[in-house]
Write a structure and sequence with these properties.
403 residues; alpha+beta; Globin-like; Alpha-Beta Plaits; 3 domains; five-stranded mixed beta sheet; PucR family transcriptional regulator; PucR-like_N; PucR_C-HTH_sf; CdaR-like_regulators
Length: 403
């Protein structure tokens, strides 16, 4: 059995586990992630707070990468793990920014390993794997945990090497604390003084889409807080976007791709950056048109309608159930006519012009819809539900068409 005296080098095969073992463990990973999340947040409530903050997606992605990279290395020794390593360094940087030592993070890693080992023992019983194989798995797993700790320590040391007495380092920590899950920490005022940063009543967050140009930070005003090193780079601009602020950002963001969040009270900074990141995701999905700089305020209805796509689909299925029984081509024509009708409140002639059909055709379709939908079009609440779901479906169809 291999020794755990030192962690394996990145990419080193996890001997003596057979490659086939990966096939047994891979289906377990989604459930294992949930189980580890429950156990870790129960033992370390601070991570429950972080999982409700603006970095929640990056944290979950880091956990996922750590688990899948272990199984991938069993199946394919030497597979690249660069994304995993960057996310693990991010974990270390977060611990340093929040003023904790690494004991908490290391404890969470080891607790996760114990949960994984428990799951592996159950898999071993299910597939009648030999006890020696499970022991080899345990040995490799805890060696892997030491590797994770070492990589996170690199990120931690990177932050620690910057003297926190320096204003730039203080401001990086300040930005992290502002974006942590509410409420804002009591120490914020003192940290603002140490960072020479006046505490603003309101702020505007900006989500940056990778890659970030090297010149960007140099063009920012002195009071703009920036985190350009993480997987989700962002800026915090004190106050509203005045004409002067807009001119500064336009110059600094030349060559960059960014989404400007809403101007909100300081305590809602995490909401502003969350909305900006969601718009960035909708750009990637083809729902929101691509542009160098996109403003959340121009897409609020889209943000709202697509805040929970699964719920929108459920609502649409409920409201359009009577139409769903029709042949697909007829259903599509009626749904499109209904969408234009309820969203424009226009007469049949204008609806016909928008759809490219005769007004009499529109009237015929609307009579069909009245008979199919009953009181849905007369009841204000049901009509609103119909309009919201139809608008959302139209946005999602544009995505599916690559529009």
């Amino acid at each position: 059995m291999p020794s755990t005296a030192r962690p394996p080098d990145v990419g080193e095969p996890l001997e003596p586990l057979p490659k086939e073992f990966a096939a047994f463990m891979r289906p377990e990973l989604p459930g294992l992630m949930k189980e580890i999340g429950i156990e870790v947040t129960r033992a370390y409530p601070v991570y429950g707070r972080l999982l409700n903050g603006p970095n929640a997606d990056a944290i979950r992605q880091g956990v996922e990468q750590a688990l899948y990279a272990f199984v991938d290395r069993v199946a394919e020794p030497g597979k690249n793990a660069a994304l995993r390593d960057e996310l693990l360094r991010r974990f270390g940087r977060v611990e340093a920014y929040e003023g904790r030592d690494l004991d908490t993070l290391q404890g969470a890693y080891r607790l996760g390993a114990r949960v994984a080992l428990r799951r592996a023992k159950a898999v071993g019983q299910q597939y009648r794997l030999s006890p020696s194989l499970i022991l080899a798995f345990a040995d490799a797993l805890f060696a892997y945990v030491e590797e994770l700790e070492r990589i996170s320590r690199e990120g931690y040391a990177e932050v620690q090497s910057r003297a926190f007495s320096e204003v730039p380092a203080q401001r990086r920590r300040l930005l992290h604390l502002i974006l942590a899950a509410p409420p804002l920490p009591q120490a914020l005022t003192g940290l603002c003084e140490a960072a020479a940063w006046p505490l603003p009543a309101e702020i505007t967050m900006i989500a940056l889409r990778s890659p970030v140009p090297e010149h960007l930070e140099a063009g920012l005003a002195d009071d703009v807080l920036a985190d350009l090193d993480g997987p989700q780079p962002h800026l915090l601009v004190p106050g509203a976007l005045t004409p002067e602020r807009r001119a500064m950002l336009d110059a600094a963001l030349t060559g960059a791709r960014a989404v400007v969040g809403l101007t909100v009270p300081l305590a809602q900074a995490a909401d502003s950056v969350r909305w900006a990141r969601r718009v960035a995701q909708l750009i990637d999905e083809g729902v929101v048109p691509e542009a160098p700089v996109v403003r959340c305020e121009d897409h609020l209805v889209t943000l709202w309608l697509l805040s929970d796509p699964a719920l929108v689909s459920h609502l649409a299925a409920r409201e359009l159930a009577p139409v769903d029984r029709l042949p697909a081509s007829r259903r599509d024509r009626l749904v499109e006519t209904l969408r234009v009708h309820v969203s424009t409140r226009a007469p049949a002639e204008q609806v016909g012009e928008l759809l490219g059909v005769h007004a009499q055709t529109v009237r015929y379709r609307l009579r069909n819809l009245d008979s199919l939908l009953g009181d849905r079009l007369a009841d204000p609440d049901r009509r609103f539900a119909l309009e919201a779901s139809l608008r959302a479906l139209h946005l999602l169809e544009r995505d599916g068409d690559g529009a």
